[in-house]
């Protein structure tokens, strides 16, 4: 992609880029039409740098969403010079991440546009912000839009930047009385078994805890105490929450291979056990491996009660705990299903997932915790844990693990599926439903449909993980499957996902609603042991909910959601066009007219952004930012999902409005 592209780009080239990376297009024409660096370029630059990186194309108009029109830059060098000048102006932007290779002109249909490739900023560089103040000047990328980061997010980035290890801190006011001594004893027994004859084995408890890093001294201020790592590892849950109010660990065993509310076994800090990380690890590891079949093997005359799957699950569980950002609002969640294991931790990875998977690079968030787990034989050496998980899973000929991040609230998820890349049952089901049409498809196309059948959906990113085709070829292949009715798209750009026509889109994967879990947890959640109710009566976590959690399941639930205009019945299209005529047939309209029209359209219906934009003939981004979001905040509209930028988002008129209209 770098360098001057001589051949004109096609629509597929743009679509392929949009699905393989975060893409922002700006007309950048300026007042004289010769080209000018737009002011909002820097918001996109900051947002991409602080999130996953991306590409900004100057001289391209994207309107409507997914439709690209090259306008070109008559004076491309003027735009490039303005860009370089401002990159070195600290009053404009805090940090230059770009090199010459990142800013290149490309030819599209005889026009010259400027491609700017923005890398993901390293932890030590974030936040990248406009002006001199990160508070108010930091932007984040959320589903193809640039949004200002709130103060909490900025503080978290600043802490990540200055604290190489987040669990290093020595706590004031916490002492040995805050620890669960049964957990400490269990850890010492394990340490003695793993490291027989070690000089630390017989040390008194205070000295032992100091040696392993659970107790330390703040040498700048001259006081000693528990480190945050020691409190997390050995403390009592209610005391841990004094230091980390959002601390929560959760294990669920679900009975069926589908997203659902039911669980048959659950472990949360409910007062019946300590609730700390070491106890959680020991108990959950036993539950994860309870049903694994162990082949009979002898080593030095002793039976080996271990397999590569045991090792992979140990690594996944340890990684989840040592890389978690315990200041975040999302819980640590571990799920066991008959077909898969799922692991979630608050916080994004400190290095990009694609780099971490290959190993050799490590930037552990909680290094003291990592050391304490390693001392008792859990967790591999730095940078080798993830490769070992992938290698061991591949050795079973199972589907490649899924590792991905969700931006809001920040969290990292890993799914380990116990099914082959091409499960015979999935092939048989697709053959039954699609007949000879399935067998006639090329191999990669069949693999895409099999992935959608097994995993609940398929995406461009997922296909890049499991096959070697060029990203542009994957885009064309997916588009062909949509045109021929094999897949149904949802979302746009990098957020685009594809479903089989008969699939329920609200039940994609075990963690497909995990972003709602964190958003719903935006308010402080009372831990179950403090709420005076047993854990089975605590509210079901939102990631298990099939019906959108914000809507509940009232008797008069709105119909829908309708997310794609092309998928609407003709009669409904006609009805929506007629209801939207007061706006769609006009240029500018009074805000009150636009709002009333939207409420009429959304009465007793769930309508997605693209459907509303089509019915009203309005730009979707402008409609969401200027009208829909304020209406939601005022209570006039209700949303299907907490995150306003969720690709599945849909809107319905509030009950009060519906009653008033009647």
From TrEMBL:
Which first-to-last residue range defines the signal peptide?
Answer: none
The residue ranges of the Schlafen AlbA-2 domain are: 19-131
Q: Which InterPro entries match?
A: RecG_C_sf, Schlafen_AlbA_2_dom, Schlafen_AlbA_2_dom_sf
Tell me the Pfam families matching this sequence: SLFN_AlbA_2
The molecule here is called Putative HTH transcriptional regulator
């Amino acid at each position: 992609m770098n360098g001057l592209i001589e051949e004109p780009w096609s629509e597929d080239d743009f679509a392929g880029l949009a699905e393989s990376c975060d893409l922002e297009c700006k007309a950048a024409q300026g007042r004289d039409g010769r080209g000018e660096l737009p002011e909002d370029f820097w918001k996109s630059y900051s947002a991409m740098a602080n999130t996953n990186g991306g590409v900004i194309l100057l001289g391209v108009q994207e309107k409507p969403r997914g439709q690209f029109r090259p306008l070109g830059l008559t004076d491309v060098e003027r735009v490039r010079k303005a860009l370089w000048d401002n990159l070195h102006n600290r009053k404009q932007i805090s940090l230059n991440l770009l090199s010459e290779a990142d800013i290149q002109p490309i030819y599209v249909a005889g026009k010259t546009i400027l491609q700017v490739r923005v890398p993901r900023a390293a932890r030590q560089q974030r936040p990248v912000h406009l002006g001199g103040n990160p508070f108010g000047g930091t932007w984040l990328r959320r589903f193809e839009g640039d949004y200002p980061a709130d103060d909490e997010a900025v503080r978290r980035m600043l802490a990540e930047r200055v604290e190489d290890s987040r669990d290093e801190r020595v706590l004031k006011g916490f002492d040995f009385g805050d620890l669960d001594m049964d957990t400490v004893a269990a850890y010492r027994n394990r340490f003695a078994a793993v490291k027989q004859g070690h000089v630390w084995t017989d040390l008194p408890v205070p000295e032992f805890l100091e040696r392993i890093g659970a107790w330390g001294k703040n040498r700048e201020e001259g006081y000693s105490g528990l480190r945050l790592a020691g409190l997390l590892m050995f403390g009592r849950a209610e005391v841990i929450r004094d230091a980390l109010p959002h601390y929560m660990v959760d294990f669920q065993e679900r009975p069926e291979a589908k997203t659902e509310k039911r669980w048959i076994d659950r472990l949360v800090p409910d007062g019946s056990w300590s609730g700390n990380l070491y106890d959680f690890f020991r108990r959950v590891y036993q539950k994860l491996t309870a049903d694994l079949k162990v082949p009979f093997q002898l080593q030095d005359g002793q039976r080996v009660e271990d397999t590569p799957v045991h090792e992979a699950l140990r690594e996944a569980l340890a990684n989840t705990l040592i890389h978690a950002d315990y200041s975040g609002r999302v819980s640590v969640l571990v799920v066991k299903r008959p077909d898969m294991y799922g692991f979630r931790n608050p916080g994004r990875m400190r290095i990009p997932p694609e780099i971490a998977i290959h190993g050799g690079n490590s930037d552990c968030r909680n290094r003291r915790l990592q050391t304490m787990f390693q001392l008792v034989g859990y967790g591999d050496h730095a940078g080798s844990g993830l490769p070992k998980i992938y290698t061991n899973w591949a050795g079973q000929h199972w589907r490649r693990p899924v590792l991905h991040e969700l931006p809001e609230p920040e969290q990292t998820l890993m799914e380990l599926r116990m099914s082959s890349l091409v499960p015979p049952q999935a092939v048989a089901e697709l053959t039954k439903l699609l007949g000879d049409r399935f067998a006639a498809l090329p191999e990669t196309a069949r693999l895409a449909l099999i992935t959608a059948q097994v995993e609940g959906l398929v995406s461009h990113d997922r296909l890049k993980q499991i096959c070697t085709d060029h990203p542009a070829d994957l885009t064309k292949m997916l588009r062909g499957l949509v045109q021929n009715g094999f897949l149904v798209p949802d979302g746009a750009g990098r957020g685009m996902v594809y479903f089989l026509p008969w699939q329920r889109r609200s039940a994609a994967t075990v963690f497909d609603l995990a972003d709602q879990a964190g958003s719903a947890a935006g308010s402080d959640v009372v831990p179950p042991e403090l709420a005076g109710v047993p854990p089975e009566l605590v509210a079901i976590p939102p990631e298990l909910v099939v019906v959108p959690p914000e809507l509940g399941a009232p008797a008069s639930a709105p119909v829908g959601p309708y997310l794609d205009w092309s998928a609407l019945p003709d009669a409904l299209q006609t009805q929506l066009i007629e209801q939207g005529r007061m706006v769609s047939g006009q240029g500018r309209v009074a805000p009150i007219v636009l709002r009333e029209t939207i409420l009429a359209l959304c009465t007793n219906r769930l309508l997605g952004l693209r459907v509303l934009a089509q019915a009203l003939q309005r730009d979707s981004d402008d409609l969401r930012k200027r009208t829909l979001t304020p209406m939601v905040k005022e209570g006039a509209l209700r949303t299907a999902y907490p995150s306003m930028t969720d690709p599945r988002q849909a809107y319905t008129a509030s009950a009060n409005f519906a009653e008033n209209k009647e």
